[in-house]
Amino acid sequence: MKLQNFWLLGFMLSTSCSSEGNECDFPDVDNGKIAQYYYIFKKFYFPMKEGSKLSVSCSAGYIFQSGRQEDEITCTSEGWEPPAICFKKCLRPSIPNGFVHNAKELYKPFDTTEYSCHEGFMTTNGDSSETINCTSGQWLPPPGCHQKTDSCETPPLTNGYYVTTRKSFRVMETVQYQCNEGYYTATGTSADWVECLPRGWSSTPSCTKMACGRLETVENGGFYPVKPSYTERDVVQFYCKENYSIKGSELIQCYSFGWDPQPPICEERKNKCPPPPRPAHGILLSSLTLHRVGDKAHYDCDDNYMLIGPEQIHCENGHWTTPPSCVQLKQKIICDKPPQIENGNAVRSLEVYNSGDAIQYKCTDGYEIEGPKEITCKKGKWPEPPKCIVNNKYCLTPPVLIKGELVETPLASYEDGSSVEYKCHSFHLMEGSKTVYCERGAWSDLPKCLKPCTLTAADMKERNLELQWSSDLHSNFLHGDMVEFQCMDGFELPMYTEVKGLCKNGQIQYPTCKKKASLKSCGPPPKVEHSINNSSQEVYESGSLVVYHCSEYHFLNGHSTIQCSNGLWESPPTCIEPCVLSTEEMDRSHVRLKWSVDSNYFLHGEFVDFLCKPGYENYEYAITFGLRGQCRFGYLTYPKCIPRQG
Ligand SMILES: *[C@@H]1O[C@H](CO)[C@@H](O)[C@H](O)[C@H]1NC(C)=O
Ligand SMILES: *[C@@H]1O[C@H](CO)[C@@H](O)[C@H](O)[C@H]1NC(C)=O
Ligand SMILES: *[C@@H]1O[C@H](CO)[C@@H](O)[C@H](O)[C@H]1NC(C)=O
Ligand SMILES: *[C@@H]1O[C@H](CO)[C@@H](O)[C@H](O)[C@H]1NC(C)=O
To answer: What is the mean pLDDT of residues 8-29?
Structure first.
């Protein structure tokens, strides 16, 4: 049977209810165990009623006395039957120069078997065959086949000497030996003798430093090997009789300072304590149901009780030491504030909570409580409160829509996946889906009902607005509508800004008209020499124009019209003086006018053509431009002619 299957069977304990009978505690399985869940839920399953059955399994290498590794034990009036004890099993002994009769691979505890030695060999007892007993996983006496001989040679002996120098002895002959000071024979004496037997020397002569003396006999058990004394490094194995168990170490070793660990004892298995006592208002903290000598049990007291006496007691000689008692406190312990939880809250019914008081928690709609809804304060502290988790089975009444309503009458609860429809009040515009679904306990997002806008005269006045269309005054504007305004007289909006307002969920986004900015006026326009103008005022509004005219023969340089621009006049023109023709200068330069002229005044920039007077000439000028002078800023240049050569 596989182990896994075995555990399953272990659960199929019979619960045939026999009349009021004995109860069996959690079994104490040496080198074995029962199904894991019994350990976890010990308090639930134990003690078991008489007649209950339980499957038990031995650890690897151990078996029940029945020879099985798994067995069933039954709760009887005497306790568990058969006792839940796993013994170490024995392997088939390996015997060189011999053989085991009816050999098996494994032997149960206390099984016996017989072995024989081959021709020419004999057992330890000197026989041809011998019976051995499986004790604590060991074969006793230790089996072995020794060669038959008719003579023995003395083996080398350290820390001692033979009384004779003879080396070879015949069967039946003996030899004596003596150990050096401080050394002893295997029997603990300073001298001994050995006999030559057909299987060899009766024992091997040896002299060792004695470190450990004879071992006391073990009540209800034994040990191996049994020797009158032990030397350093000797190992002794202990075993106990049926229904007894080793208390201490199964193996001990002899050191120069003695045994380590100390030899064990065999303890009666029934040497256990009953379940620990439960004082009134006391709480037993120990989870064990089975207690051995030396085990401890811990206590605490109920809320508002004080522990008097030891907090822990011990199992001694099958009895518990005196347990503590719990005494009621005069004043109750005040608790901290009850812990808060997300998506829910504590339903407070008391102003002050004392130890032992309980408080309930409630979750907000759409959430359900996880864990116990009530928690109790213990010793002034609250345990972990429950949690509120999303209720994903059904939805509660759908939420109320602001400025809207459900199309149908709402129900108290809705199944997952169902839907409801909303509509908005008149003039309200719906944004989002009108259908809302119940999805895993919560309603999907609601639509929005966007409010209409109404105009108020006060709002408009505040922003220097009037309606473009007076018929709009008592209209309802829906969300998204545009209201057309215009600025009141003397007010304006920055350039390119529309005088419009959008209705956005009940709020008109009004523009604001600002008072038109007044531009600065100018004083009298700048004076220009040799000019006349059409100005006559002292103050000119921004934008006013003034026109200049130059006096006769004066040249106008620049624009004749200038403007007052926000307090400043543009640059005015200038009137440049004319040139006057001088006959004296002409005579000095020996020139005369080429063309007759109406006036002796020439405008700035004007050219005047000359000719040389007869008998005079000017090659240079003649070739390039002819004889030419120019009026520049009131000065006329004259070309010069010189008397003709030759
Ligand atoms: C084997 O050893 C046990 C324990 O010492 C003893 O009780 C039992 O009688 C022995 N069996 C035989 C067949 O000698
Ligand atoms: C061991 O204990 C069991 C049950 O208590 C009993 O039946 C059995 O006889 C005992 N064995 C010995 C050797 O006392
Ligand atoms: C404009 O002309 C008048 C005469 O018509 C004169 O008195 C006044 O000074 C002139 N103003 C300027 C700015 O030239
Ligand atoms: C001067 O004359 C111009 C052009 O005729 C005219 O626009 C302007 O208003 C006049 N200015 C004054 C101060 O009369």
So the answer is: 57
